[in-house]
Amino acid sequence: xxxxxxxxxxxxxxxxxxxxxxxxxxxxxxxxxxxxxxxxxxxxxxxxxxxxxxxxxxxxxxxxxxxxxxxxxxxxxxxxxxxxxxxxxxxxxxxxxxxxxxxxxxxxxxxxxxxxxxxxxxxxxxxxxxxxxxxxxxxxxxxxxxxxxxxxxxxxxxxxxxxxxxxxxxxxxxxxxxxxxxxxxxxxxxxxxxxxxxxxxxxxxxxxxxxxxxxxxxxxxxxxxxxxxxxxxxxxxxxxxxxxxxxxxxxxx
Length: 253
Known about the structure:
Tetracycline Repressor, domain 2
């Protein structure tokens, strides 16, 4: 297979069939890259910086990880390995998906640089495949595979969108030096002006009546997740596992 035919790093053998044992490994390089990205951001995880971290020559690392795209694939897949899916499916689909969703969110918040590392095309790395088998296995007995894909896309979109908002807020606070509480306080005079104008009645109801914006980030996440799980429940046949013992929730019809 030529270089042009490789579309992901796992299609490339890690070491040649013959020759001396390699001095380094993809795992070691990936571990160092993740450590650097956690401390300094994804852009800091260059081959030169990784080489300095593990005491290697920068050019020698390209024998193990040929491109920047390959490195990011390895890093992203490594993070997926942090999500605990042992024992899934357990037979309680709602508990399983709740556990997975919290694990995915926690991973994003531990490694906020993942927000800039996502690729549209799947890499099918070993940790991603483990997640696919475990998480999609939760609903496999209850719905056709296409429905399963759609429901998992709904769940993942909610979790990743929520986590991305949290990451962006944290970055804005870091960049501006203004906390979320301070930002709200400074915005109050303008918000008051908008309310008094009477031109924005829906915004007025959000500002004066909505409970959701007043919840903590954790509470907001849990509340939204319950709605997503209710919608998944509505797509399952009656009695399709623990948590599906009643008619579909009206808000998801």
